[in-house]
């Protein structure tokens, strides 16, 4: 009996120890699980925080880029007008006027000197045109000559710096208001595109004046320039002057391509009006 009780006591003690051990294991496992859960929650929270930071930085960057784009596109001219920086400076139909300017530092590609007559000797910057315009001018001048019309190219491409000097001189000699009517502020001149050429004739005394439109050369150009992709960029009429911002200039030819030129000249509209229809 005593042995039996001793044996039962030992077994009971062993069971108690085993139960306690099991509790300890469960407790440790539970603690470890809780710790792991906490770590995972902290990791997720940290990842979420990093994600939020990244999204906020991205948002701020987007806002900064948008603001910069707006500043790049809209500037204020010296006259107080809002000026849009064009995004297609190489296009034949690029609109450059008092409210649309070329990007800073823009220089057109493929500038070349057309094989036509000039009323002066030597080689100058202003003799250049972009290749498509130069080729078209050569064809027009050759066609005119075959009909006894002798044309001269006076002034084509002008760099930003050259236009700046011209405008400053006009301001000094004519006043700012008149200078803005007869010439363009730097960056807003069609001559900088390489697509414009001022032409003249001996009958016009090689001058760039409105009387050129009344000469036989000026009349021929007005009638035939569109066949070669050119338009008289600043046509006659107060209504047209309000649109272009410039007085009548029968000598100022702008290359836009034959399709656009024929439509513009046939309908007696400006480049601004033509682009508004597109």
UniProtKB/TrEMBL annotation:
Its domain of life reads Bacteria
Basic and acidic residues biased stretches: 38-74
Record field: compositional bias (Polar residues): 27-37, 75-86
Segments forming domain D-alanyl-D-alanine carboxypeptidase-like core: 127-257
Residue segments, region Disordered:
27-86
**InterPro entries on file:** DD-CPase-like, VanY-like_core_dom, VanY/YodJ_core_dom, Zn_M74/Hedgehog-like
User: Can you name this protein?
Assistant: LAS superfamily LD-carboxypeptidase LdcB
């Amino acid at each position: 009996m005593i042995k039996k009780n001793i044996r039962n006591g030992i077994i009971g003690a062993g069971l108690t120890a085993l139960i306690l051990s099991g509790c300890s294991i469960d407790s440790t496992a539970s603690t470890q699980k809780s710790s792991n859960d906490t770590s995972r929650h902290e990791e997720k929270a940290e990842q979420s925080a990093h994600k939020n930071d990244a999204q906020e930085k991205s948002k701020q960057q987007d806002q900064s880029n948008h603001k910069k784009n707006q500043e790049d596109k809209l500037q204020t001219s010296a006259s107080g007008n809002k000026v849009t920086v064009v995004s297609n400076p190489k296009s034949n139909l690029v609109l450059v006027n008092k409210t649309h300017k070329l990007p800073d530092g823009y220089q057109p590609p493929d500038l070349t000197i057309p094989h036509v007559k000039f009323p002066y000797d030597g080689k100058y910057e202003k003799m250049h045109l972009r290749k498509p315009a130069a080729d078209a001018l050569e064809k027009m001048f050759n066609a005119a000559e075959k009909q006894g019309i002798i044309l001269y190219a006076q002034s084509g491409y002008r760099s930003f710096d050259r236009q700046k000097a011209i405008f400053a001189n006009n301001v000094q000699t004519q006043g700012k208001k008149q200078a803005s009517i007869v010439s363009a502020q730097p960056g807003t001149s069609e001559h900088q595109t390489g697509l414009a050429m001022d032409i003249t004739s001996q009958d016009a005394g090689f001058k760039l004046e409105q009387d050129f439109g009344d000469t036989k050369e000026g009349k021929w150009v007005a009638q035939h320039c569109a066949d070669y992709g050119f338009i008289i960029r600043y046509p006659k009429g107060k209504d047209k002057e309000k649109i272009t911002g410039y007085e009548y200039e029968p000598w100022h030819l702008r290359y836009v391509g034959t399709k656009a030129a024929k439509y513009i000249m046939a309908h007696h509209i400006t480049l601004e009006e033509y682009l508004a229809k597109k």
